[in-house]
Amino acid sequence: MKFYSRKLIKPGDLNANDTLFGGQLLKWIDEEAGIYAMTRLDTTRVVTKFMSEINFVSSARQADVIEIGLEFLSIGRTSITFRCEVRNLFTKKIIISIEKLVFVSVDENLKSLPHGKTLADIESKAQIKI
Question: Which of 19, 45, 69, 74 could be joined to 85 by an S-S link, Cβ 3.0–4.6 Å?
C-alpha cells in the first residue's frame, strides 16, 4: 500500500466529541481515491460506484496528521477497484480501513463506459510516481 496524501486535523474537521468527524474522513478518502482512479484510467470522468464495509479502528484528534493509502486490487471493463487504509502519520496507528472501493468510467451522460485499460496498463502506471 502506498500513502499518497496527508491531512492535518483542524478544528473544523472535528465532531462533538472533539475527534475527527467520520464524514469528513470519508470525503477525503473519496476524493483521493477518485484522483487515483483518474490517474490510472487517464480520464477525469469517473464516479464512485461502491464502498465496502467501513471499519473505523481508531480516531484522530486535532493537530494529528493522517495519511491516506490506496492499493490497486483489480480492473474490470468499466471499473477499477482499490483498497484503502488511513493511518496516523507519526504513530502509524490505523484509523480506518475499507476493503473495496470501486470507481466506474462514465461518459458525458454519466453512463458507464469501457475505459479500454488493461491490467498491464495499470501495472505500468504503478511504476510511475504520480
Answer: 69
Give which of 54, 38, 58 is closest to 46, Cα–Cα: 38
Q: How far apart are alpha carbons 18 and 22 in whole angstroms?
A: 12
| Cβ contact 31:20 at 8 Å | no
- The verdict on residue 52 lying in a domain is yes
Q: Is residue 80 part of a domain?
A: yes
Beta bridge partners of 5: 68
Question: Which candidate, 18, 9, 3, 120, places its Cα nearest to that of 64?
Answer: 9
Distance CA 96, CA 99 (A): 10
* C-alpha to C-alpha distance for 53 and 65, rounded to whole angstroms: 24
Whether this prediction's pTM lies above 0.85 is answered by yes
How do residues 83-126 score in pLDDT, each as one tens digit?
999 999 999 999 999 999 999 999 999 999 999 999 998 888 76
Phi, psi torsion values for 33, nearest 5 degrees: -65, -35
Looking at the 3D structure of the chain, how many domains does it have? 1
Q: Cα-Cα-Cα-Cα dihedral of 88, 91, 93, 99, to 10°?
A: 50
Residue whose cell numbers read 476493503: 99
